[in-house]
Every structure is written in C-alpha cells, then in structure tokens.
Amino acid sequence: MSFQGIYTALITPFKNGKVDEKAFQDFVEWQIREGVHGLVPCGTTGESPTLSHAEHNRVIDLCLEVARGRVPVMAGTGSNSTDEAIMMTKHARKAGAAGALVVAPYYNKPTQEGIFQHYRAIAEAAKLPIIIYNIPGRSVINISDDTLARLAALPYIAGVKDATGDLARPYTLKARLPKKAEKFAMLSGEDMTAVAFNASGGRGCISVSANIAPRACAAVQEACLEGDYAKALALHSKLVDLHNIMFCETSPSPVKYAASLLGKCRPEVRLPLVMPQEDHKKSIAQVLKKLRLL
C-alpha cells in the first residue's frame, strides 16, 4: 500500500452521548463521493480518547463497511499502552483496514529506545502497515529522525504523519532513511503547511479541514502529486481561513460545529471537550459562507 494524497481524519458524530452510526456512515459516503483518497477513523479528530474499546472497534468497522475497498482506511489504533495498541491494531487488520495510524505513546514519556520498542512490538504482533503519528503538542514526546529511520527499516512500518510543524523534517528524515525504506510515506499532519511539506518530500496530508471541504482539499493534494505547486498554492490559499478557524479552539470542537452547520451531524462533543464559544461559532459560520459551503 502506497499512502498518499488527502486522508480525512474523520470526526465521530454523537447523538445523546452515543455514537451516531447513521450520521457517521452517511458522512463517510459523502467523503468518498467528494473524492478523498483515504479515510482515518478513530484518530484525534475522531475523539478516540473518549471512545470505549467497543465503540472504537465499531467505528472502524462502520467505516470499512461503507468504504468497501473504494478508498483505503487507515484506522487510528494508538495508545500509551503497548498492549492496548496491539489489541486495537489487530482488530483493524482483521476488519480489513489498509493500515493503522499509531500515535506516539503519550503521558508515559518513554525514551527514544522505548518509542522504538513500542512500535516494533505493535508491528510484529499486528502485521499491518503502520503510519507513525508524531505530534509532540499532544503526546509531549518528539520522535527523532534517528528513531524514525530505525523504525523505517522494519517490516510493516509504512510511514509517518508529521504534526511537528517543522518543515525541515522531511529533509532531515529523508537523509537518514535506509535504502530499503524507499516507499516510506511522509505525510503532513497540518493542513496549513501541507503544500510546503509536500514540496520538501511529503506525499500527502492527514487532514482536519477535509471534514468540511473534502473536494477542495483533495484538489490541493492532487496538484502536489502532479508536481504543479503553483496550482497547489493557488488552491491552498483559498482554504487558509478554513485551516485557521478549525483550530480556534481545541480540535475537534470547531470542526464538529462546522460539520453541524453543513447538516452532517450534531455539534456534540464529549467531555472534557466543549462546544466552541459563541464568538467562535459566528466566525466559523462566516468562513463557511465565504467559501460558499453554506
């Protein structure tokens, strides 16, 4: 599997405290029709920390049920417990996912050796292509280029989602990758810098904004894959306000609210997250109107 293009970090709709299965599956179908290249259920944007194990596995199953192989599904299966991550990644493999997005183990603050052993254990046990998710802003730890290069040499380690915001990382990492890791996918975890990331060697983006403007976000990535960065930048510039407003408060509260304005789900989030403040709600609506999404 070659992971590239736009992958939507899917929201998980809720209704009266429970997963709204119909809204979720309708949303997945809409995403596919709008032209996204892949789907990521149960990531940070899907409020995975608040999902029970049963809900987590069910959401992945629901996504795969709708996708039916039309686009690859990269299931979020990370945890700060290695055993728990193995359990969820094994489920994703059995369910038919093309790969797994595994976040760096948060809170525990392992050493670089601990990080290496964590991912190696998951890969060896689950035998499913794994995209490493490096997001120091949420996990506290930053996976070094040397550690990523060591991991890239292992079977089933397929790439990295980089949410560090450091646009030097594609260059510094590529310089350290072993020759047998030629297909190691470098994916951006930030919509705002995705074009620059791709120009530096990336091959796509795992996107929050694609929840709201999937067709437009897909077009940006397609232009990048074609090597037409002038076109990509022109398309990207139209989405700058959307990328900004999606993080006016802790994600995914803003994107959930925006999706509710589109009629895709309720704005409901689970504590400790709360809905955006009224001034932010107004700003979100204004951006959607500007983009003619409302």
SSE inventory with pairings:
Blueprint: E1 5-9, E2 14-15, E3 18-19, H1 21-33, E4 38-40, H2 53-67, E5 74-76, H3 82-95, E6 99-103, H4 112-126, E7 130-134, H5 136-139, H6 145-152, E8 157-162, H7 169-176, E9 185-188, H8 194-199, E10 204-207, H9 214-225, H10 229-237, H11 240-245, H12 253-261, H13 278-290
Parallel strand pairs: 1-4, 1-10, 5-6, 6-7, 7-8, 8-9, 9-10
Antiparallel strand pairs: 2-3
| Mean pLDDT level | 97
CATH superfamily: Aldolase class I
Largest sheet, if any? Answer: 8 strands, parallel
Strand content: 5-15%
* Outline: globular
Give the second-level CATH assignment, the architecture: Alpha-Beta Barrel
Strand order of the largest sheet: 4-1-10-9-8-7-6-5
How would you concisely characterize the structure shown here?
The protein has 294 residues and is α/β, with parallel strands linked by helices. Helix content is 45%, strand content 13%.
Task: Label this structure with key terms.
45% helix; 294 residues; 10 strands; TIM Barrel
Write structural notes for this entry.
The chain is α/β, with parallel strands linked by helices and 294 residues long. The protein has a single domain (5-226), classed as Alpha-Beta Barrel (TIM Barrel), CATH 3.20.20.70. The protein is 45% helix and 13% strand. The strands form two sheets. An eight-stranded parallel β-sheet has the order 4-1-10-9-8-7-6-5. A two-stranded antiparallel ribbon has the order 2-3. The mean pLDDT is 97.
